[in-house]
Amino acid sequence: MVKLEELLDLASIKTGLSKEEILLRIRNKQKELSGLVSEEGAAYIVANELGVKTKNRVVESILKLKELKPEMKSVNVMGRVKSIYGPREFTTKTGIKNKVVNMEVVDSTGVGRVVLWNMHDIEKVEKGLIKAGQVIQVKSGYVRESSFTNSLEVHVGSRGVLIENPDGILGEDFPKIGGVENGQRRVKISNLKENEIKEVRAAITAHFGNNFVHEMCENCNKKVTSGKCEKCGGTKTNKLLILNLAIDDGSGTVRAAVFRETAERLIGLKAEEAVNQQKVKSQLEKLLGSELIFEGKVKRNEQFDRLEFNIFNIKEVKTESEIEQLIGEKNGKS
């Protein structure tokens, strides 16, 4: 990635403007965007507006995950792949079969979700060209807010593209997967705090509700209840599986929501199969008392004024890993 000083030099040479004038434009751009982008991010935007190119390509602004805002379009982000879910096949109401891939990615500011819709990039996943641990770049993605988790997702549609191991990017610029997990140290449920991304080891003690499958707008990812999206007017939908649980680790109990592929893996049913409520309940009953490791983000339910855990990954309890975890915790305290 071109550094700020190098970009200033290049822009000055290409445009004839002084570095001071370009720097002023960068700061004005930051103000214009209400501080949503870093100085370097604003520099890429200004360079793009000035038509400055590097290595025969127009310079593009790279946003950090924490800089994303709802409804942003043509965004460019980079991160290291933490985990991949899919490809998952689904059938639209019109009978068209499609695929989707969800990925958790990390950068220096946090964890985010990337959703792949175009077959070109999905085929890369199927061929093993994109895998956990790699650094990726998303170009021309668009941002959607999940109706259920209130978290932001970068979607890659027909106009977007995903680049694996982009040129000129140093892997050490992005957190190692192990480093991220160490930074998200496991905690007790009683110590969960709002907006944290944490891991807990707990048992499933209850499940709630009867409506497990929800219709989501294919265009804007909002919940559709009357056959037509109230936000964008779209009529094409995808099925989304959501499970509501209670998990307990002895220190406390927390309501937990499990979404998409993670929910499908937990009960062994696809969203299309989960329309059969009895099948879902039967699988959930079998899971009662099961002790698992849950990764997720803590959110506050404003309606009930309580903390809840939105789970994005579930792992089995493995003796070897648990021993390493205990040794790590012991060394960290010593």
From TrEMBL:
Residues 199-326 form the Replication factor A C-terminal domain. The keyword DNA-binding applies. One of its GO terms (biological process) is double-strand break repair via homologous recombination. The keyword Membrane does not apply. One of its GO terms (molecular function) is DNA binding. Keywords: DNA-binding. It comes from the Archaea. This is DUF2240 family protein. It comes from Candidatus Naiadarchaeum limnaeum.
